[in-house]
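REQUEST ID: PR-0412
SUBMITTED BY: lab tech R.K.
PRIORITY: routine
TASK: structure prediction, single protein chain
INPUT:
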Amino acid sequence: MDLEMSQSERYAESISAFEGNFDELSKRTLEVSQTFFGKLRDYEGQYHEKLNNAGLEVLEKVAASDVESFPEEARTLLGDKDTLLSAISTAHDMRVAKLDAKEDQFRTDEQASLAAAVKQTVADEYMRNRTRILEVWKLVHEVHKKELESDRFDDS
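STATUS: complete
OUTPUT:
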């Protein structure tokens, strides 16, 4: 039983070290992902700028040409500068919102992964410890039972 207690203490130390190392890895992963999503937002901002500029150029070209040759949706969009820029901004906002949602989901999943790994490790150690103590307990009872039986026969 002393061996099992010693082993259990060593496992607890190992689990604690594992949790610390996994936590450190998780923090680094979150830092890298934060940088990654920041760059994606920057690229989206640059894309939005270029799309705004391209939209304004198209508006200038359309103003100089025959608008009736375009489909109805295109005429509606290109007929008013504010409508076009509003549509471009709305699309940009939606893309940024999707990036934010993905980043939040990634962060949540990473934190859940850490919690699940530690919880499973602790549960596995608990089960191993309980199984081992049960084995020791059964062995002690078997030995005790045999000693009692041998004492009964020795006294006769």
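NOTES: The chain has one domain: 2-155.
REVIEWED BY: pending
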